[in-house]
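Hello forum,

I keep getting stuck at the same step: I have a sequence, I want structure tokens, and every attempt I make locally crashes halfway through. Rather than fight my setup again tonight, could one of you with a working pipeline run this one for me? It's a single chain of 366 residues.
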Amino acid sequence: LQQAEFVFIAIDTPVNDLDEPQLESVLGAARQVGQFWDSGSILCVTSQVPVGTCESLAALVSQQKSGARCDVAYIPEFLRLGDAVNTFFHADRFVIGANAPEVTERVAQLYLPLGRPVLRIGLRSAEMTKHACNCFLATSISFINEIADLCDRVDADSLEVAQAMKLDRRIGPHAFLSPGLGFAGGTLGRDLCAVEELARQHHCSARLPEAVLSINRTRAGAVKQRLLDHFESLHGIRIGVLGITYKPGTSTLRRSVALELIADLAGEGAEVRAYDPLADWKGVHPLPKFSAAPDAYSLAEGCDALVLVTEWQGILDLDLCRLRSAMRRPVFLDTRNLFNPQEMSRAGFLYSGMGRGRVPAALAAS
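Reply #2:
Ran it on my machine without issues. Output:
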């Protein structure tokens, strides 16, 4: 480090059970860096941290060596788990935040060869940009989930509603408007909690982040309610859960909504099975009560209901008739709205998505 021009702190910022950021590991990294610091270096932070943290990290580095100067820049990362390399090389933009223009420009030179837009702004503005982006995305998710619940009641299709919304140039084709079980994993929740804490510290209102979090925390219960539309009680009902990772294309179970859902169903007395071809069980303790199946067809054997939580590559190649014939009863809840309702009904399923309205009785019976 003593001859490094740039030193990056890019480690993950853990969250607690309430999605509040835990900064101990990031602060510890700054202390370690400070032991070998060269005042000509620039500390570059990409870890997800609350506003004001970068200044604290620079101070920690300086404290480790008497008279050391630490210039700091914040580069919020907007990578997507499971698609990180692609989203880095094809980023919408890179945001470089620093209080000194010469620091901003030195860091910007690292990113200019990638050929993507580079925005140079203030240090705290860059930290707030990360909060604002994730809070906006989380708000979009909670919004469309509220609309989806209404669509189910009035027999409208929330996917058609979202399609129409995205054609509005003020909303746009890439808007986060996919009904489902909400956001998980801690990433979006971490920024919502950070904004709430900032609002408390500075005596500002934060009613919208509070509402977004409140809506999201009820989403796992939507599965139980939809299952109770088919069964008087879940006690003794055998339920298979398809996909339990935090999001498609990943192996992580960290803060997976599927684990919360499984615990909820098991608490109602249901017998829960699960299958996911990518799940990495290491480091997840305690696990809720369920049995793991070796494949989707074994999972479906004798089930009264299947619940799709997280898709994986190849899931649409499943033999739907074989899956249905393995089941005791044909209830299929698709929380990702992945399958076509008419095709599922023709395969013999009592299919329901999230916000898709009711499947016509004649079609469901065909």
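Residues 84 and 270 are 37 Å apart (CA to CA). If your local run keeps crashing, start a new thread with the error log.
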